[in-house]
Amino acid sequence: MERFRRSSGALALALCLWFALPARAVVLGQVDDFEDGTTRGWHAGSTLNPNPPANVPDGGPTGAGDAFLQVRSSGMFASPGGKLVAINSLQWSGDYTAAGAARISADVRNLGQHQLHLRLLIEREPQLGGQRFTTPSVLVPSGSGWVHATWPIDAASLIPISSPGPADPAEVLTQVGTLRIYHGVAPFYPNTETISNLGIDNLQAEDRDGDLLPDASDNCPFVANPDQDDTDTDRRGDACECTDQDGDGRNTVTDLIAI
Fold first, then answer.
1. Distance CA 100, CA 223 (A)
2. pLDDT tens, 108-117?
């Protein structure tokens, strides 16, 4: 009986800890703005890294009082912290396709002396194979100030970079286990040691046009149209309408001006 009570207590504790963890499901429009004073689960992988990602309370894109995430690397070959990388397996895991996430954007600032080629790496859940795909890079020169970066994460844009075996990127996007931000001149992860200092803020999951409406229900999926205006009710949003804008049944100069 005593053993049963101990087992039951351990199970109850485990369940409590499980439900206390952040949700493992990416959501369209979610933003890591780091205003809560934490790293939002971003880490460097190794506990031996002398400079893990850190929350900086001031100096974000809007200045004083705007927190951001700082990621640094020492440039030391084959040493913990030698390469620039930040890893998240919590709120950035899950089914990106179901969430309607087709790109990820962020405000970034190169605080170091070397230009950075920033990429995102998407890794499948380990128990499902762990295949990795990366995005094209965004070049951020030294002394850039805060700039807005966007990485496409649709299947056509992803580059396979690792074994075991190639996989269908569309399938991997439904089973993402880990998202990484890293510096890589070439896609292979992580391939470049350099002394780096990067600021990241307002990391957001977006649809293709950034209006935070899932493409499946967006009447203008390639051009931002957050209000879903459709003057002539043809189910094509005004923002990408190339014909009758005012719904009078004619194509006139007025429609051209509106376009």
1. 15
2. 999 999 999 9
